[in-house]
Amino acid sequence: MKKYILAIIPALAISTTGVLPAFCGKPDENVDAAASKPVTEENYVIAESDWYFAGVQKKAGVNTWMHDDPVSKNNQQVIRSNRDVVYSIAIVDVSEGATFTVPPSDEFQLIHIIDEAHLFHQVLLNGESLEVTAADIEGEYVYLLARTKATEDLKDTKARQTALEFKARASRPYPSKGYDEKEVIAFREMLVGRVNAGEETLEGHNAFGKTLKDVDPHNYLYAAAYGWGGLPMTTAQYVPMQVKSDQPQKWTIPKPDLKWSEKGFLSATFYGADGWIKEDDFYIPHDDMKDEGDYYSFTTNAKKGPGNATVEKGGNFVIRMYLPKDADAVKKTVDIISAIEGVPTEQ
C-alpha cells in the first residue's frame, strides 16, 4: 500500500452554511471530540474523502450500490451535484482486487473510481472494464461515483443505472479514520468561502489526477472542498462562476468543441453560496440555452422558464462540458468562460 503524502497549503478562514448529502447523513453528535483527529492543512483532503467514504459505509455498508434519482433541491448527494445525470454510489473493498464494468449503451454513462486520497480518478465509459487492486491506489477502498445520463424515459434510465457492475474479492467494512466531522465541514466551508470571495482561484483542469504528480497542489486542495468527486479534464471540464447580483442578467459563453455526436453535452447548474441547490429552477441544459451560432446564452433571475435560473446574490454555478474532443483545446474555452460575467438584461 502506498504512503500518503499531501501537499502543505496555507490555511484559510471563512464560514458558510453546509447542507449535508443525504447519503452521508448528519454529523454524529455522540462522537467524542477529544478522541477525534483534528483537521489540518496537511490532512484535509484525506479527511474530506473519509467523510464521504464513512458516510456511505454508515448508510449502505461496503460493496453495495446506492442508485439515486435525478438531482433536485431535495435530493443532493455530493456538493454541487449535476442534474444531467443520475448518480450511483458505492464504496468497494479492493484489498484483494475488484473488477468494475460499464455495460454497452447508446446513452452517456460512466463509473468514476476515486481512492481515499481523492486521487486515482479512473473513468470507465460504455463497454469498458477495469481491474483495481490496493497496489494501484492510496488505501484499500475506492469510492464509486457513477453517472448515468438522465433521459425523459425514467424507466430506461433506471434500467441502465442498475446494469452497472462490480465484483470484489473482499468485503470488509470501511474503517473511518476518526477525523472530527465538524472540523471537516468547517475546513471545507472556509476554502469554499475564499473561492467565492475571489480571494483564491480554482482551476479544475489539474485538480483531479491519478497521483499527486498529476495535480497542482493548490487546485487539488480547493477542488476537494469545492467539488469533491469531479472528473478529470479528459472526460469533463468545469467552470465555477459567481453570481454577483440578484437582478436579471444575461450570460453568453463560447461553444466548446465537444464530442456532440457521441453524447457530449454542456449544462449550467446553479447553487447557493454554500454550494447546495436552493431553488427549483436551478438547471439549464444546453438544449434550453439560446443558440447564437458560436455562442450559447442564458439568463439568471429573469423571466422564469427554459433558459433561466433563479440564484441568490453571492451564489454560484458550474458550467459542465462533457466529452471534449481535445482536452487542451477545451481548456482554452474554459479560460475564456471563467472571465465572463453576467450583464444586466430585462426581466
Automatic annotation (TrEMBL):
Tell whether Signal is among the UniProt keywords: yes
Q: Which residues form the signal peptide?
A: 1-22
In terms of domain of life, where is this protein from?
Bacteria
Lineage runs: Bacteria, Pseudomonadati, Planctomycetota, Planctomycetia, Pirellulales
Listed A to Z, the keywords are:
Signal
* Protein name stated in the entry: Uncharacterized protein
Native organism is Novipirellula herctigrandis
